Amino acid sequence: MCLAIPGKVVELFHDERPTALVDVVGVKRRIDLGLLQDDLPEPGDWVLIHVGFAMSRISEGDALDQLEMLTMLGEQDAAMAEVRGLGMTEPDERGSP
Amino acid sequence: MKYVDEFREPALITRTVEEIKRLADTQRQYRIMEVCGGHTHAIYRFGLKDVLPSNIELIHGPGCPVCVLPMGRIDDGLSMAEDPSVIFAAFGDMMRVPGTHGSPLEHKARGMDIRIVYSPTDALKLAAKNPDRHVMFFAIGFETTAPSTALTLMRAKAEGIRNFSVFCNHVTIIPAIRAILDSPDMRIDAFIGPGHVSTVIGCRPYEWIARSERKPIAVSGFEPLDILQGIVMLLRQLRDGESKVENQYKRVVPWEGNRAALRVMAEVFQLRPYFEWRGMGFISQSALRINDQFAAWDAEHRFHIPGVRVTDPKAAQCGEVLKGVLKPAQCKLFATECTPERPVGALMVSSEGSCAAYFNYEHRKASTLTNISVPA
Amino acid sequence: MSTVTSIDQPRYKVRFRDPQIEMAHGAGGKASRRLIEGLFLPLLCEASPEPLSDAAHVRINGASIAITTDSFVVKPLRFPGGSIGELAVNGTVNDLAVSGARAEVLVTTFVLEAGLPSSVLEEEVRAMADTARQAGVTIVGGDTKVVEHGKADRMYISTCGVGSPIAGLHLSAGAVRPGDKILLSGPIGDHGITILLARGELDLEANLRSDTRSVLPLVEALASAVGGSIRWMRDPTRGGVATSLNELTRDCGLGVVLREESIPLRDEVRGACELLGLDPLHIANEGQFLAVVSPECANAALESLRATPGGHEARIIGEIRKQPAGAVLVVTSYGGSRIVDMLVGDPLPRIC
To answer: Is the N or C terminus of chain C more exposed, i.e. has fewer CB atoms within 10 Å?
Structure first.
């Protein structure tokens, strides 16, 4: 547990059950949207797919935030090193957010 | 691949690893357990152990639904398929799991109608397409997978598809974590929480781990940057003497979980009073059964199953490896009598079981390599 | 090259202990190897044991010839990019090519299931004729058997090919040295994933085709560019690149280290593998080959492939090293690594 892959919603279907055609770098499958009934995605949205069901919508904002946080890890360190180099702070002030 | 490649970006990985090295106190040995088998698989697949400092030890937890399934349950499932009118449908993960008289794949080679499906709805479709046969779906998985089975059962009922049943072997993660923490020979400093289970149950169910057991837990995704960032979060908490639940996998995990998924689970399933976990014994309230409203689709009602308990060979030390007390290579049978080709114990059966993962990805590496440089 | 020897050689003992034949024995991985090395070789091959190769090079009355055989069992018979008939011709041409020989003639046998529509058979025979013409090989004979309905999965085809050695090539696992480079002719996984999707059980759609083709033109281009510096070649069919390279490491006693980002892969193959939890290195290919060349000639070798039609996606994917001896290691660009072993049976989709 548990292999789940991000896929892009291409088309929605509203038959007896809500489904969507989802694309994963060119591989397409009809995915069941039954677990996202309270928050149905639109074409262009990204969802997390597990055993043919969409489990969750993927938040682009949160993804970008995470990447930015990680990018800043090194920058914080560079900034700290610079500040340390100027003799302005203790060397064990490490990696604080 | 969007939402995948960005989280495998080499420069960011290197940077995050440097942060880990900065945070890890060299005077201290860290024991961090990843609960979920998917994380075990990812750690090996991405070679993350190679880049972590040696004082961070990753302990593999029991979150492998195939590994913890007792052999008797596989025998039960296969016994239902002995009737030639039955089609046995299951995920690929189940196909090589050995029962007492062979695995589903081996039964298939002997003529039993055994089919691999990617989704429980595929099994239901098979039933609709084959009205003169009965399709029995062997359901496994933690809370990630249970809602999909539940929804499929609701569909079967709504559409009146009677030639379909589910053999329910869904288990729940919290009791497993509790069993780990209750284990006397356990020493875990922090947990990497199961990211995909949490898309369903959210982050609240782990609060007792932080509050009562005082262990940090970071619910993490499965790409290298997710796992590494989860470790950064845990190291920071440990450094600061904190213990709280953090959601590393924010882009996908809602703190409150997926209400629709929890609703369908409540509608279809109820908790079994107890269930046997291979290598861990009986754990109470740790597994799901199909409730009476859906009894007509419950394979345990439709079929008479032998229900025989099959004990594992004493020499197999699965329980200790499952709980992280022993490393795979420390089990006496590892790589000798017990290999992926001829598995003796549960953990060698599934590709995400710690013994199988270690055997397949790591074990010949350990003794022979010092520095691995990337070829030009 | 082995010589047909007299029968004075001691016979080897059968070491194959499995009580019965299982599907895994035909999957091209560890179990297959056990069967071949433990039962077939000891009883059938009286010549001194050489590492297994795709074709045998022998001398008969002073003439050097190469000979190989292969059988084709595939469901469905027709799939995007090809059919069983094409596989049957290209597969044997390729086995000869990677053993360092140019296929000249083929003979073929058919095992047909009673009830098979003649139109289906005709389609496959036409496909074989067209493919043979394209590959420059002549089909000179064959045999047919019909079995009862329910056997033979509609049709099994086997082909035996005879060819002439390509001048200047001296291929053997024993010639491989640490530092040698490993070339791959093009993207992997196309064939296996196409077949998986064509079976229709997984409900996935993708714009993928089998890569079935003769690799002889590429092998010949490589041979004329760097001939004597090619140590070893193989076509990674069932069991994929992982199986072929693991066999190499076992045969030469050295190790293989691959650079993950150098391995050519189409997006759709990657997507299907991620979705299904499969490793592209284990997936079958029918139109690619691996070549191990000396490091000095690696760039020239790569250029020769890229300059040949169909070779534009060739890459250098790794190298031979002393360690990990007997194993294949894949390294990521951030320094993580994993061992890639041969599979036991066929790769199976997973959800966990």
So the answer is: N
Q: What is the CATH number of domain C173-339?
A: 3.90.650.10
Distance CA(B93)–CA(C340), nearest Å, equals 19
pLDDT number for residue C15: 85
Question: Using CB atoms, which residue from A1, A5, A30 is nearest to C274?
Answer: A5
For residue C259, list chain B residues with Cβ-Cβ distance below 8 A.
374-375
Does B18 contact A at CB distance below 8 Å? yes
Contact C336 B224 (CB under 8 A): yes
Instruction: For residue B229, tell me if it sits in a domain.
Output: yes
Which residue segment(s) compose the domain that B232 sits in? 5-64+174-192+202-247
Query: How close A42 gets to chain B, by Cα (Å)?
Result: 16
B313, part of any domain: no
Question: What is the rounded CA–CA span in Å between residue C186 and residue B169?
Answer: 43
Q: Is A10 on the interface with C (CB under 8 A)?
A: no
Handedness of CA C113, C119, C122, C128 (dihedral sign): negative
CA distance B51 to chain C (A): 6
A25 and C267 in contact (C-beta within 8 Å)? yes
Instruction: Give the CATH number for residue B228.
Output: 3.40.50.11750
A25 part of contact set with chain C, CB < 8 Å: yes
Q: What are the domain boundaries of chain C?
A: 12-49, 54-165, 173-339
Residue B178 at interface with chain A, using a CB cutoff of 8 Å: no
CATH number for the domain formed by residue range(s) A5-86: 2.30.30.140
Residue C190 contacts by C-beta under 8 Å, 6 or more apart in sequence? C81, C208, C209, C210, C211, C266, C269, C285, C287
* Helix (H) or strand (E) segment spanning residue C248: helix C240-252
Any chain C CB within 8 A of the CB of A3?
A: yes
A73-77, C2-6, C32-36, C250-254, range with the lowest pLDDT: C2-6
ipTM of this complex:
0.93
Interface test with B, best of A33, A35, A38 (most B CBs within 10 A): A35
Q: Which CATH superfamily is domain C54-165 in?
A: PurM-like, N-terminal domain (3.30.1330.10)
Q: Tens of pLDDT along C173-212?
A: 999 999 999 999 999 999 999 999 999 888 899 999 999 9
Q: Is residue B327 assigned to a domain?
A: no
- By Cβ distance, the residue of B47, B340, B341 closest to C338 is B47
Q: Which amino acid is at B131?
A: P
pLDDT band at B371 (very low <50, low <70, confident <90, very high): low
Q: Are C205 and A5 inside 8 Å of each other by CB?
A: no
Burial of C69: CB neighbours in 10 Å, binned 0-12, 13-18, 19+ = middle
CB-nearest partner of C22 from B109, B116, B369: B109
- Opening angle at CA C308, ends C307 and C312, nearest 5: 70
Q: Which of A27, A47, A48 has the highest number of chain C CBs within 10 A, making it the mutation to test binding with C?
A: A27
Q: How many separate domains does chain B show?
A: 1
Under an 8 A CB cutoff, do B119 and A51 touch? yes
